[in-house]
Prior knowledge:
The structure holds two protein chains of two kinds.
Chain A: H1 3-7, H2 18-23, E1 24-27, E2 30-37, E3 44-45, E4 60-63, E5 67-76, E6 87-94, E7 98-106, E8 117-126, E9 132-139
Chain B: E1 5-12, H1 23-38, E2 47-51, H2 55-59, H3 65-72, E3 80-83, H4 89-102, E4 108-115, H5 133-138, H6 142-157, H7 161-175, H8 189-194, E5 197-199, E6 202-203, E7 213-221, H9 222-228, E8 234-243, H10 256-269, E9 278-280, H11 286-295, H12 304-309, E10 320-321, H13 326-330, H14 334-349, E11 363-373, E12 376-386
Parallel strand pairs in B: 2-3, 2-4, 9-10, 9-11
Antiparallel strand pairs in B: 1-7, 1-8, 4-7, 5-6, 8-12, 11-12
Helix pairs in contact in B: 1-3, 4-14, 7-11
Amino acid sequence: MSVESATHPAPRLPGQHALEQQVIRESEGRFELVGSRCPKCGTHFYPPRLLCAKDLTECETVALSSHGVLYEASLIRVAPVGFKAPFWLGYVDLPENVRVFAQIEWTDDTEPQHGDPVELQIKLVRHDPAPVLGPVFIGPA
Amino acid sequence: MTDDVYVLGVGMTKFGRFPDRSLREMGREAALAALSDAGVATTDVNVIVCGSARTGILQGRESGVGQLIGWELGINSIPVYNVKNYCASGSTAFDVARMAIASGEHDVALAIGIEKLSSRVGKGAALTSDGMEIEGDIGFSPPAYFGMIARRHMDMYGTTREQMAEVTVKNRQFAAMSPYPQYRDAVTVEEVLAAQPVAEPLTLLDCCPTSDGAAAAVLISERLLARYGQGRAVQVAASVLQTGIYEQVKDITTFDLDIRTSRAAYERAGIEPGDVDVAEVHDAFTIAEIVHYEDLGFCAKGEGGSFVASGQTRLGGTTAVSTGGGLLTRGHPLGATGLAQVHEVTTQLRGEAGARQQPGARVGLTHVAGGFLEGDIATSTVILLTR
């Protein structure tokens, strides 16, 4: 059974939630994690923003890479309200030089480690009080 | 050229979970204690600056906490500034009060920090860290962030869980010698390691507890100092507030913001990190205190773990750290923490800290690193006090 089918049985479109509205878009039947790219200096930003923080040029919204490298992760043993422990949270560095905070899912018996390659899936990150889609990085990839 | 500023008096409540104590009650107690300690009458106060972070969402009082507490003491008709700046709200209030005097605009300022976290008025969504709304929906909490810092620090520098636990052991020992902290019982390294896991590798005893409380300080101009007697006054050698650069792809075992803020303060005061006898740092987590040793310059990068294990941050060490018990034992009532730190360092520099007195303390530092913005720390304050 894939991780995907275990936690995200039914595809759904991004809803009205702030997380979904800001960082997820649907393109040709696939979900993408989006950031901003400054057309003038080429700097990428995540989450997306209107103006480049370096030169105030209006940014374009772009899909970010789905392959990244785990910077670090922590196994959460006491869950915040609305979540069920245990689960891994981590920072993933993408080739666009942005760092994404995400849930981490591990498909073998090892523990996520600094430098591990990981792959993005957009899936449910929260069920309570309402289902919310967000970035989940799967490893080892 | 600005005028010299002094801390003339300090006061604070006991910190702990006090769901039945109101903002006005805790604020009144801390402010009266500071005024009494300073020997300053309420009618002599020129300006109030009050710091709090979450009184709006939790206590239904977004604005006007400073007016509320002032009027509890019968203080009216003077300027009141309310500041909100994450965990640094209290130290920001101190800095605004300092500027109010240094500018020559005022001579006597009452800085108050206050927070009530253990209960809330009405119902609402669970609190997320300000500036981390997107991350909050993914499950973010501050322990997760510092759990990652701990893993990275262990990986890069060989820092051990036992060294982290030593921070709690030390701060609990200090807490037993102070009347103010919430948790004053001794714990062992083994007990810290065996406590409820929160965000690996951190356990419950690696994290600061929920707390309520208030703290206050009376600041005075050099011009008026003689009128009140300067015997117990402590000089503000520097107070610096800065904000983050919000850079994402970086080494999370060091905070560039804290390095910048502390170096600016050292430069302004003409003080070297090695001169600091006593410090209250933002030990919201054990690993945070270790990282702060390094960023504030008390030891070299990567050596924070062995620094605490060596005893150099205990009494008689090069820099006694968290002698007031720190956030780990007081708890962290956001707006109150910065002024509770000023309370402890002032007490140390006066030589009035009793059993927890750092011998010969002449230079003290307080440090708050507060809030998040896009994965970076949002603000930092460093205050240097001398006697």
